[in-house]
Design goal:
6 strands, 6-stranded antiparallel β-sheet, 30% helix, 136 residues
């Protein structure tokens, strides 16, 4: 028996919140780009009943990954945040990106809304801690 897919409910919820949705066709599962004027853009991936919400912030110095303080900041955030925070190096753009990700299973209007609110709140609270690592 196949798992129920919740991509339509997730997309409808994001549209209700004012996100513009672009369907990025996949062979397996679904992927969407959700953009908003009021919140960070999200890549939304759904496979069966699992949804992964990802946002990235760029323009951090490649020297960041040589800094103990940079990783201590990431570790400190991960100890208290619901979201997963990590970094990604992009050698082609000579750039480091802060990636914030949440996994969500099934769909419930109230808990999905709370997850989105929490993710946004964590970004507003924690992302400024990385300002000293921005490219100059």
């Amino acid at each position: 028996m196949a798992e129920k897919e919740f991509d339509k409910e997730i997309v409808a919820h994001l549209e209700f919140l004012g996100f513009q949705i672009e369907n990025l066709e996949l062979e397996t599962g679904h992927m969407y780009l959700a953009s908003s004027d009021n919140r960070p853009n999200l890549v939304v991936r759904t496979i069966n009943s699992t949804t992964i919400l990802t946002t990235r912030f760029r323009d951090y110095s490649p020297k960041s990954t040589s800094s103990k303080d940079f990783f201590q900041t990431l570790n400190s955030i991960n100890q208290e945040a619901l979201s997963k925070w990590y970094c990604q190096e992009d050698a082609e753009d000579d750039d480091v990106r802060i990636v914030i990700e949440n996994d969500y299973y099934g769909y419930d209007k109230t808990t999905f809304g709370a997850l989105l609110d929490n993710m946004h709140s964590e970004i507003v609270t924690h992302l400024p801690k990385f300002s000293k690592f921005l490219k100059k």
